[in-house]
Write a structure and sequence with these properties.
13% helix, 2 helices, 9 strands
Amino acid sequence: MPVWLIRSNGDRIMLQNTVMSLTTKNTIVETPLVNRQGNVKEEISIDDWDINIKGIIVSTSMDYPDQEVFELSELRKSGEALGIENARTSLVLDGSEKVVIKKLTFPPLKGMQHIQAFEMDLSSDLDFKLIIE
């Protein structure tokens, strides 16, 4: 399933041949009740989405896909929040929600010079407005 990462200047980078996992959790405080059975559960916050994307970059020229690897590496170095478009993320992320790259890995892939595997860990990122009174 393809994933598009969108830079703030509008440039779009398509990641093909990917699989994705999405994980989030709620922070809940449990308070025991005196002389009663059970706990009172209070939802304190909802964590960001952790997104893991695994995929492969395939060069059509049968050479190593050095340009695509360089572009992904530069994208991680930019440190900017990126837009994301994908059928699965559109179901769980708010339209204004962005993602930041936390980790990028290029694991070895034996016997294929024109293919490079990659793995990215991303985290959802919401814009906050700071109001100083």
